[in-house]
Specification:
Layout lengths: L1 E4 L1 H6 L9 H9 L5 E3 L3 E4 L2 E4 L2 H12 L7 E4 L8 E2 L1
């Protein structure tokens, strides 16, 4: 799954809010998931939870501490080889 985070996602995102962070907004904009939530370590897509990549974790950390330092980015999250946790 390729996730492209735009400047609009960053500007419209809410720090410390799993459903409103820039990554969650980007996923909702690009894919058809009804429930998207991103924490500092994982993303929940509908009822399935996947671990974030190292780069995604760093993006969340930077975004949550000072979103003005965040830049448009692209990440790849492999949904097929990860062990899935159902929530």
């Amino acid at each position: 799954m390729r996730i492209q985070i735009s400047q609009e996602d960053i500007d419209g995102g809410k720090q410390g809010t799993p459903t409103g962070c820039a990554i969650a907004l980007a996923i909702r904009r690009q894919y058809e998931f009804s429930n998207v939530a991103v924490t500092s370590t994982a993303v929940t897509l509908d009822a399935k939870k996947y671990e974030l990549t190292y780069d995604m974790k760093e993006f969340v950390r930077t975004f949550d501490s000072d979103k003005s330092l965040s830049r448009p980015s692209e990440f790849v999250l492999d949904l097929f080889t990860q062990e899935v946790t159902y929530v």
